[in-house]
Amino acid sequence: MTSSVWEGAVAGAVAGGATRVLAAPLDLLKIRFQVHAAPSTPHDLGTRLVRAVTHIYGEEGVRTFWRGNVAATGLWVSYAAIQFACYQSLQNAIVRHDHTLSWVWYSGSGAIAGVVATVATYPLDLCRTVLASQGVPKVFPNMRSFASHMYATQGPRGFFQGLSPTVLQIAPYMGLSFGIYSTLADLSTTHPVLHAVGNGAIAGFVSKLIVYPLDTIKKRMQMQGIPRPAAYGAAIPRDRGPVQGHGA
């Protein structure tokens, strides 16, 4: 059975917006740990996470956990809408040509849809990363100030800074995610709603874990050339002591 492209777009937009609002605090922490590298070991990761939450809340307030959320919500609503619309279009085209939907088709469609949505919404992704990564004092108080700076200093191309590693990350990520999900769905015969949630969680976790190093590279490249205040490192509290290599 095929679904309309409109249904896919609406479902994706609603899911993307709801997920964005709920996951914003965790996403902000992830971005700051990726951008503000500090020496750490697996043993002190939990301690650093607690310290980071306490520091951000004490220094910047609870609203900070949703900083850049306008850009992020716009990103995820538009990204999910474009992605699922494109994915549904590809699935419908495959069925029309009498091809049997398989893991390969699901993965390929997911990868293509992910790349299309990423390129279309990338300026919002860049804006979200910059706004969320700021500590105090802030260089860019809002989206408008950041957009004005980028256009004045780098021109339109500046809004696509770091796009290459992003595409290299999103293609395998979405391909794996949709491929794993479809495979698990084929194995699920009872409790479809529960299986859909579980399958989505497993597919997202496994695929994200595989491509996570590329996501960190992407975030670092997005921040290249972006002005930072002297107190920029305060965005994430660092342990005292000699600085060591970041490692894996």
Describe the structure.
By secondary structure, the protein is mostly helical. The chain has a single domain (5-235), classed as Mitochondrial carrier domain (Mitochondrial carrier fold), CATH 1.50.40.10. The protein has seven helices and no strands. It has helices at residues 5-35, 45-60, 69-96, 103-133, 143-154, 163-187, 192-222. α1 packs across α3 and α3 (69-96) packs antiparallel against α4. The protein is globular and about 55 Å long. The model is unreliable at 230-234 and 239-248 (pLDDT under 50). Keywords: Membrane, Repeat, Transmembrane, Transport.
Write the layout of secondary structure elements.
Layout: H1 5-35, H2 45-60, H3 69-96, H4 103-133, H5 143-154, H6 163-187, H7 192-222
Helix pairs in contact: 1-3, 3-4, 4-6, 6-7
InterPro entries: MCP (IPR002067), MCP_dom_sf (IPR023395), MCP_transmembrane (IPR018108)
Membrane topology: Multi-pass membrane protein
Solcar repeats: 3-93, 101-187, 191-248
